[in-house]
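Quick one, probably user error.
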């Protein structure tokens, strides 16, 4: 398998073509274990998702639409059944200290949280992260929907979790009072909190909370591939950087345009992507090649 130099070390990147359920069963028989699984499945939109492809440049450019993936289902129960089987398979592949992050939207997150509680155990629930984004307002007599939900579950709640503390900037009011210095909590004789004291050390910021404000990919952003539902690299950077160490392996069984693989390579993690859409595989291949990353491609029909 090829080794690719990244900023942080070497990354092995695998892309498996096919349905992720048999693909994950195959990985399990190979003895593969991953420290993090990120799942960004179809959201039960009941739509066929198309990718707009541009041909040519400038004024001569033309556009055509190709099928990216089909998110149409007979009913919601059928969707849940498919999702639950995948979550069980993902859990099997997690290492003892591993964790899963399931990316869903508010129309199904409550059903899938109950499913995850059943599959992982309620005590394995770690976080519900709200990804809040800004986008062009929709025409609706309702509040604008501007968040997705990321459900994080650990494989074994009795073990120290794999977790790298990330920080966000100090609040402007804190900076106004304390500057960028780290504060120490102080307590009076009666044990009650009194005014904190300032240290000489610079503060790393505030330990990151579970509401993340990250912009959606701008129409003209360089990272945009045209693949529908592509997630911002900045979102994946947070997920991968907080849940793995360099040299760990990340699994993305709904790889789409390859965002997880691209980010994993930049951060020096190994990664395995799976997708059954030829368009997703094509976009991922081209994206990683453009970034100078080597990819080992396998198809379910030819592996093993
Ligand atoms: C929401 S998109 C993922 C987008 C991705 N996170 C990105 O940043 O581009 C979901 C992907 O899952 C794939 N998919 C859906 N069901 C699948 C299955 N059973 N096996 C493999 N891939 C599947 C679709 O082809 C689609 O590319």
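Nope, works fine. Designed sequence:
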């Amino acid at each position: 398998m090829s080794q690719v130099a990244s900023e942080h070390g070497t990354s092995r990147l695998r892309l498996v073509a096919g349905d992720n359920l048999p693909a994950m069963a195959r990985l399990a028989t190979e003895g593969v274990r991953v420290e993090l699984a990120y799942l960004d499945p179809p959201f039960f939109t009941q739509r066929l998702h198309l990718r707009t492809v541009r041909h040519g440049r400038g004024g001569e450019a033309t556009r055509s639409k190709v099928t990216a993936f089909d998110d149409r289902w007979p009913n919601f129960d059928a969707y849940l059944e498919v999702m639950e089987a995948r979550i069980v398979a993902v859990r099997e592949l997690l290492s003892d200290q591993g964790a899963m992050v399931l990316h869903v939207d508010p129309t199904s997150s409550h059903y899938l949280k109950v499913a995850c509680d059943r599959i992982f155990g309620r005590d394995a629930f770690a976080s519900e992260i709200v990804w809040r984004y800004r986008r062009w307002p929709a025409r609706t007599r309702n509040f604008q929907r501007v968040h997705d939900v990321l459900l994080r579950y650990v494989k074994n709640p009795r073990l120290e979790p794999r977790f790298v503390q990330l920080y966000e900037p100090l609040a402007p009011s804190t900076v106004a009072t304390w500057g960028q210095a780290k504060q120490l909590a102080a307590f009076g004789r009666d044990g009650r909190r009194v005014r904190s004291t300032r240290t000489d050390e610079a503060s790393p910021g505030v330990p990151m909370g579970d509401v993340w404000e990250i912009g959606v990919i701008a129409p003209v952003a360089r990272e945009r591939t045209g693949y529908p539902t592509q997630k911002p690299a900045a979102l994946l950077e947070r997920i991968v950087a907080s849940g793995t160490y360099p040299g760990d392996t990340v699994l993305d069984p709904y790889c789409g345009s390859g965002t997880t693989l691209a980010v994993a390579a930049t951060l020096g993690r190994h990664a395995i992507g799976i997708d059954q859409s030829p368009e997703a595989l094509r976009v991922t291949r081209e994206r990683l090649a453009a970034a100078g990353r080597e990819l080992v491609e396998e198809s379910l029909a030819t592996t093993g």
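DSSP finds seven helices and 17 strands in the chain.
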